[in-house]
Amino acid sequence: MTLDRFYPIFDSSDWLRRLLPLGVKLVQLRVKNLGEDATRREIRTAKVLCRDAGCQLIVNDYWQLAIEEGCDFVHLGQEDLDSADLGAIRRAGMRLGISTHDDAELERALACDPDYVALGPVYPTLLKKMKWAPQGLEKIGEWKRRVGDLPLVAIGGLTVERAAGVRAAGADIASVVTDITLSADPEARTRAWIAATRPTPIVRASL
User: Fold this and answer.
1) Are 5 and 173 spatial neighbours (Cβ–Cβ below 8 Å)?
2) Which among 55, 95, 115, 129 would be 20 to 30 A from 66, CA to CA?
């Protein structure tokens, strides 16, 4: 399994409709505070948009709806793990990403045999109040040594300007929220992220 190095998270399919055409190839739909019917509609819409754009969709939290709607990837936080049926998720053929913030959570996540592990917050974050202090770049290196070949996602306070440092510290994937959604020009910021996280093509001179 290969995942793109740029992993934005959006709370609405409207963001996907707006930004997927720019070349986003990995995205999480993190819907909050909607009823079941509205959440289902969001997942259905996101699935179609991602299919048409050749983008991998990861559904946050709502694993039951993701299974029912035929999605193939779900992300769970530590609280979500308390009630999630991991057996049902695996029987449905779904892949799984898990959030971690400390040693105990990492051990718990690895015991679930995930398809990636996320570490955060790397830097102070504007998205929500966190009970964990910023992890910093050194923690990324430690986590990567512990997870080995498993993809490591860095999240929390990431900006385009910090992308290279996060990658050099050991993160395989950079996940971003507010650096795009609070930007004065989300399209330009998305393009900058894509440029910062994808290899520069090799241009061969004509013979």
Assistant:
1) yes
2) 129
pTM for the whole structure: 0.93
Q: Which residues are catalytic?
A: 30, 99, 128
CA–CA dist 195, 164 (Å, integer): 11
* DSSP bridge pairs for 7: 175
Q: Which value, in Å, is the radius of gyration of the alpha carbons in the chain?
A: 17
Q: What is the domain partition of the chain in residue ranges?
A: 6-197
Provide the strand spans (E) within the chain.
Answer: 6-10, 26-29, 56-60, 73-76, 95-100, 116-119, 152-155, 173-176
What CATH topology corresponds to 6-197?
A: TIM Barrel (3.20.20)
The candidate with the shortest Cα–Cα distance to 175, out of 24, 59, 9, is: 9
Alpha-carbon gap, residue 142 to 103, rounded angstroms: 10
**Cα separation of 173 and 115, whole Å?**
13
- Tens-digit pLDDT profile for the chain (207 aa)? 689 999 999 999 999 999 999 999 999 999 998 999 999 999 999 999 999 999 999 999 999 999 999 999 999 999 999 999 999 999 999 999 999 999 999 999 999 999 999 999 999 886 655 566 788 899 999 999 999 999 999 999 999 999 999 999 999 999 999 999 999 999 999 999 999 998 755 555 554
Is the separation of the CB atoms in 133 and 111 below 8 Å? no
Q: How far apart are CA 76 and CA 87, in angstroms?
A: 14
